[in-house]
Design goal:
about 180 residues, mainly alpha, two-stranded antiparallel ribbon, 6 helices, rod-shaped
């Protein structure tokens, strides 16, 4: 519906400019001025859009009319929906981290290339990991036990591997990888 309205707006501007130009004896000039005025209005709205997007999530959408009002409103609605999803995802992640942090077992979340994304307090104590400097490091660079390196490289997670704890050689650890996500 908005595009039909925009079409009629442009048609009306063109007709008024043409008729006024005919009366004034310069129809082409008035049509050209009307087209430049219409394009200028779009340019101003593009500038408003760019400025609004650059200001960030908390900025209010620009006020305009016609198709631009619909575009600004729809984008504002999308931003609000994304903020809501982001808050929900953050709450879910926080709950996951809280639950994993409460476990007595060491939990280390690895990325696609075995880089450390997160670990709990038990992992710090048992594996000798340090927050935050070890985040982003490959686990094999920090846990250099040969059996663990072979286990990780084999990518056969149907079994566990045993090794002595890096932080305390008297403690024997059973390492199990659980793929997810």
């Amino acid at each position: 519906q908005v595009w039909i309205s925009e079409f009629w707006r442009l048609t009306s501007i063109g007709l008024v400019a043409f008729v006024t130009g005919l009366v004034a004896g310069h129809a082409e000039l008035f049509l050209l001025l009307a087209v430049f005025g219409y394009l200028g209005w779009h340019l101003i709205n593009l500038m408003r859009l760019q400025r609004w997007l650059a200001e960030g999530e908390d900025a209010h959408p620009p006020v305009s009319s016609g198709a631009w009002d619909v575009i600004f409103t729809d984008l504002a609605r999308l931003q609000a929906r994304n903020r809501k999803r982001k808050r929900k995802l953050t709450r879910t992640l926080t709950r996951f981290e809280d639950a994993a942090a409460a476990l007595p077992d060491a939990v280390v979340v690895l990325g696609m290339h075995d880089e450390i994304e997160w670990f709990n307090n038990a992992a710090q104590q048992m594996l000798g990991l340090h927050w935050p400097q070890d985040v982003g490091q490959r686990i094999s660079n920090l846990l250099r036990h040969p059996a663990f390196i072979e286990f990780l490289a084999a990518r056969d997670y149907s079994r566990s591997v045993e090794l002595s704890a890096p932080a305390n050689a008297d403690v024997l650890l059973a390492v199990l990888v659980v793929p997810y996500g």
